Automatic annotation (TrEMBL):
GO BP terms: lipopolysaccharide transport; transmembrane transport
UniProt similarity note: Belongs to the LptF/LptG family.
Taxonomic path: Bacteria, Pseudomonadati, Pseudomonadota, Gammaproteobacteria, Aeromonadales
Species name: Succinatimonas hippei (strain DSM 22608 / JCM 16073 / KCTC 15190 / YIT 12066)
Cellular-component GO terms for this entry: ATP-binding cassette (ABC) transporter complex
Superkingdom as given in the UniProt entry: Bacteria
Record text on subunit structure and interactions: Component of the lipopolysaccharide transport and assembly complex. The LptBFG transporter is composed of two ATP-binding proteins (LptB) and two transmembrane proteins (LptF and LptG).
TM stretches of this protein: 29-47, 68-91, 243-262, 269-288, 300-321
UniProt-recorded name of the protein: Lipopolysaccharide export system permease protein LptF
InterPro entries: LptF (IPR030922), LptG/LptF_permease (IPR005495)
Length: 336
């Protein structure tokens, strides 16, 4: 929201669509938040049970840590279904909808960043308008207009001045700036030779055609399965990135259960900080692998899928082993 509001403040994003853009950002944020939600839920809930000595009572009646893990994995299964739907379908849909909205606002006069007494940049022109009046149909009438080509140079550029004008779409959907009763100055040479033309009506295109909006071909808005089968490295990495939260749900839940089993004297939040560090390291490792694949220093396969495997064998399994496992293993070796 802060980023969108800052962009709206400088006029790069229309204020009227900030709410829509924020809504379209939710699926991408949920990719990170859904695994974190279950991870923290297990830590805080089981930490509360253990700190209140309720886990001692539960174990005395035969409720083992394996039963806790089973219930947690059932929750992880349902969470993974929601995560999979979000990552595979909602993320590309929201990205495509956001880009389509941005393109439509670029061609809609109602959303153009033109205000009275301010400079605006449209269609390769820098425009200063002294007065702007919005009509009931969304079109805008403008008065006392100054139009300069952007970027402006000493030679080969022009400046147009008009008493009034308006923004209209033609039959092909192209947005035009139409000016009435003005003058146009063109600088031809370095010594200051110029032409001046007086016109009754002047037209300049300021945006593309609504009817020619093509399907966005960027990575973020393409279908996940299409990316997997595309054969492009960037596409496959993006698909792996979308699938990685599904595995993260199970791995992080598997790690959260032993971390939440605290001693009643330690308090429910005794292991919260180490758990957050593990979660952060998981995603930092994931981002590092993504960057290494894009740079060519890590193979495309196993790619990002190596991260859950590493955390399973080097973090998850060791944490879930009995506390005296290594002692028992050592004593067996000595007995042999």
């Amino acid at each position: 929201m802060i980023r969108l509001i800052s962009r709206a403040a400088v006029g790069t994003v229309p204020v009227d669509i900030i709410t829509n853009l924020a809504a379209y950002a939710v699926p991408e944020i949920a990719m990170i938040m859904l695994p974190l939600t279950l991870f923290l839920a297990c830590l805080i809930t089981l930490g509360r049970i253990c700190s209140d000595s309720e886990m001692v009572v539960m174990r005395s009646i035969g409720f083992s840590p394996a039963n806790v893990m089973t219930i947690a994995m059932i929750l992880a299964f349902f969470t993974s279904i929601v995560t999979a739907f979000n990552c595979i379908y909602l993320v590309p849909w929201a990205s495509n909808a956001k880009e389509t909205l941005m393109k439509q606002t670029e061609n809609n006069p109602q959303f153009l960043p033109i205000e009275s007494g301010k400079f605006s940049s449209m269609g390769g022109y820098n425009i200063y308008i002294e007065n702007v009046e919005e009509k009931s149909d969304g079109e805008k009438n403008i008065a006392n207009v100054f139009v300069m080509e952007s970027p402006f140079a000493n030679v080969g550029n022009s400046m147009t001045i008009a008493d009034n004008g308006y923004l209209v779409h033609d039959e092909n959907g192209v947005l035009w700036l139409e000016l009435d009763k003005g003058s146009r100055f063109e600088v031809l040479t370095k010594d200051g030779t110029s032409n001046k033309a007086i016109f009754d009506k002047f037209r300049a295109p300021v945006a593309g055609s609504n009817s020619e909006l093509q399907e966005d071909d960027s990575i973020s808005s393409r279908d996940t399965f299409e990316l997997l089968n595309s054969g492009e490295k960037r596409g496959i990495v993006e698909a792996q990135w979308r699938l990685s939260p599904i595995f993260a749900v199970f791995i992080l839940t598997f790690i959260a259960i032993p971390l939440s089993m605290v001693n009643p004297r330690q308090g429910r939040f005794a292991r919260l900080m180490p758990a957050i560090l593990i979660y952060a390291s998981y995603y930092m490792f994931l981002l590092s692998c993504r960057n290494m694949i894009n740079s060519g220093s890590w193979p495309l396969y196993p790619g990002l899928f190596i991260v859950p495997v590493v955390f399973l064998f080097f973090v998850g399994i060791p944490l879930n082993l009995p506390r005296n496992f290594w002692k028992l293993l050592h004593s067996k070796k000595e007995a042999q």
